[in-house]
Specification:
It is built from no helices and eleven strands. The mean pLDDT is 95. By secondary structure, it is mainly β.
Length: 115
């Protein structure tokens, strides 16, 4: 069974940094894009950043210049480096990987940014 395991969340002060990691514990064949989503209380889940197998990236406008997404295809792992964190970045962050037929999701890791 495939499981995506996220790590790196926690509590930081505004202006601080965190690095999120997400790795597939099982084998996922033909992984396409990988991405990070987040969901704050009573808000819609939103795409924060994504990266294709070829390395093309997308960033939510509010995180552009502060966050960097990267991937290691050999390890089936996706990372999100988050710098200059703001209180509005507080949310549960979920990683996602596109498989051939279905998408795989992590269980989420909480990021809390204090003032």
């Amino acid at each position: 069974q495939v499981q995506l395991v996220e790590s790196g969340g926690g509590l930081v002060q505004a202006g601080g940094s965190l690095r999120l990691s997400c790795a597939a514990s099982g084998t996922i064949f033909n992984i396409g894009a990988m991405g990070w989503y987040r969901q704050a209380p009573e808000k819609q889940r939103e795409l924060v950043a994504s990266i294709t197998r070829g390395g093309n990236t997308y960033y939510l406008a509010s995180v552009k210049g502060r966050f960097t997404i990267s991937r290691d295809n050999a390890k089936n792992t996706v990372y999100l480096q988050m710098n200059s964190l703001k209180p509005e970045d507080t949310a549960v962050y979920y990683c996602q990987m596109e498989g051939t037929v279905i998408n795989y999701w992590g269980k989420g890791t909480l990021v809390t940014v204090s003032s």
